[in-house]
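FORM 12-B: Structure-to-Sequence Request
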């Protein structure tokens, strides 16, 4: 089963907290699978820190809405300021309610969600 996610880029604005979904976005992408924080979240954070390429994103029109998303990512950027990431998880399919499960800078996301793939035994 696929874990679908939408990635939105937003500008940091006065009066809008990172734990709320902003109305203004300037780019939007869709990821059909592996949208969970340990997958896509870590990929986004690593890309922001070291330009690692991210595969299988679909560019979307800003008005596109999906009813089957499990995660929504916001990448908050403004020139001269640090980049922050917010992750929202859908908690109600009938009411379309979201819960903010992460807010922070890319390294904090990696520290929280990246699993150690080295098994020393």
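FORM 12-B RESPONSE
SEQUENCE OUT:
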């Amino acid at each position: 089963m696929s874990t679908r996610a939408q990635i939105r880029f937003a500008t940091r604005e006065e009066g809008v907290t990172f734990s709320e979904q902003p109305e203004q976005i300037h780019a939007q992408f869709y990821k059909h699978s592996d949208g969970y924080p340990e997958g896509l979240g870590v990929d986004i954070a690593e890309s922001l820190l070291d330009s690692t390429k991210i595969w299988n994103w679909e560019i979307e029109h800003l008005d596109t809405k999906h009813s089957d998303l499990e995660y929504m990512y916001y990448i908050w950027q403004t020139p001269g300021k640090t980049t922050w990431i917010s992750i929202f998880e859908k908690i109600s399919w009938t009411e379309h309610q979201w819960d903010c499960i992460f807010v922070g800078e890319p390294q904090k996301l990696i520290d929280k969600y990246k699993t150690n793939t080295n098994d020393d035994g």
